[in-house]
């Protein structure tokens, strides 16, 4: 079976608040890009579905939001290059999201993530019966 999402990547279905907490925690560890980016700008993301994007990965969406308006840098902070903008070092990011889920037990799946999980679960259940 194949599930085609109407967002760029599975990460686009993660809860906004978890993404923002992980990005805020990770930003101080970034060395080369800090002068060109302002992490406080991430607080301007108010839409719960901001990261639910069909064209771009969450890395690019984060970078676009936190890049200083006066910055001319071509270096990315969170995007893995300047293309679709998948998140840099997906495995490490995944581990940080899981850690966030552990620390903030009140997190909830987004509707899109819940639907995806239900489809996967139903497929497993069907194949195991």
DSSP, total strands: 0
What ranges have pLDDT less than 50 throughout 5 or more consecutive residues?
none
Query: What is the distance, rounded to the nearest whole angstrom, between the alpha carbons of the first and last residues?
Result: 16 Å
Helix amount, in percent?
25-40%
If you average the pLDDT, what whole number results? 94
What structural class do the secondary elements suggest?
mainly alpha
Question: How much of the sequence is in beta strands?
Answer: under 5%
Q: Could you say which overall geometry the principal axes of the C-alpha atoms support?
A: elongated
How many helices? The count is: 4
Rg, please? 16 Å
Q: What's the helix-strand series?
A: HHHH
The largest sheet, given as strand count, sense and whether it forms a barrel, is: none
Question: How do you describe this structure in short?
Answer:
The chain has helices at residues 16-26, 58-66, 90-103, 111-127.
Features:
single chain
Architecture blueprint of SSEs:
Blueprint: H1 16-26, H2 58-66, H3 90-103, H4 111-127
């Amino acid at each position: 079976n194949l599930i085609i999402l109407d967002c760029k990547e599975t990460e686009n279905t993660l809860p906004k608040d978890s993404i923002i907490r992980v990005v805020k925690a990770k930003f101080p560890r970034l060395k080369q890009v800090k002068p060109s980016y302002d992490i406080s700008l991430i607080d301007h993301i108010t839409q719960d579905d901001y990261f639910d994007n069909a064209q771009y990965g969450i890395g690019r969406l984060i970078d676009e939001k936190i890049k200083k308006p006066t910055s001319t840098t071509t270096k990315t902070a969170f995007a893995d290059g300047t293309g679709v903008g998948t998140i840099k070092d997906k495995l490490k990011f995944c581990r940080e999201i899981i850690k966030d889920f552990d620390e903030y037990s009140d997190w909830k799946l987004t509707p899109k993530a819940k639907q995806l999980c239900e489809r996967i679960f139903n497929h497993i259940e069907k194949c195991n019966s």
